[in-house]
Amino acid sequence: MIIKEIIKEAWPAVIGGATAGFAALQAYKSQQAPVAQPAAPQTAPAAPVTKVAPVDPTAQAKPAAKPAPVAEPKIQLPTHPRAQPLIKAAQSAGMKGVELAQFLAQMEHESWDFEKMVEVPSNKNYFKKYDPKHAPRQAKALGNRLPGDGERYRGRGYIQLTGRSNYQMASDALGIDLINKPQLAARPDVAAQVAVWYWSSRVRPNVRDFNDTAAVTKYINPGLRGLQDRHQNFKSYMQNI
Predict the structure, then answer these.
(1) Taking the CB of residue 236, how many other CB atoms lie within 10 A of it?
(2) DSSP label at residue 70
(3) 156 located within any domain
(4) How far apart are the first and last CA of the chain?
(5) 196-221 burial: b if 16+ Cβ within 10 Å, else e
(6) 228 lies in a domain?
(7) Is 195 part of a structural domain of the chain?
(8) From CA 95, how far away is CA 75, in angstroms rounded?
(9) Which among 66, 77, 90, 150 has the fewest CB atoms less than 10 Å away?
(10) Domain contains 63
């Protein structure tokens, strides 16, 4: 075969092969091209942070304001000379206002308007009602155990302290020998101490409202004797309120 013919015959094949190779190359390049990535979502800008003042660990919380105390009403005090030691002792013990008025009202009644500091018999057999021989039940309630205890430990003082047991308890509380010297309970200065002791230990712990004369009287005279007079005394001390 002549060279020219060989070239003439072979050239179309070369051209075809080259064309096919170029097409294959383009196809390969298209496969290797980077894949486009989706755009990242845009986030909204963060809100500005409000600065908070640092807490002082040593700072103390302010206590809540306390309500203003209610002023105790001023009462009309008795002017009787014998009532003055009693008023002084009561005020020294912290009594005031309505409580002081009720205390004085009760003591006024018990002492016959501050006139008598000793229980006076109305007849010769009067004190038998406290005697263990003649009235054993009443005597036992009062602690009277010996003949003559009824008269010996008769009512004395502003509160009319009565019975051996009460004299003994007052003696122990006040450090005054009222068992061997029961007459001391009628002396105004001692009687005032006895009255305040009795009130503080027997009456005050059991009464919620000192305006209630009956509730107070129950712990002084369980039979509520003289209730009307006691309450009238109370009202007279409260009259200027």
Answers:
(1) 16
(2) P
(3) no
(4) 153
(5) bbbbbeebbeebeebeebeebbbbbb
(6) yes
(7) yes
(8) 12
(9) 66
(10) no
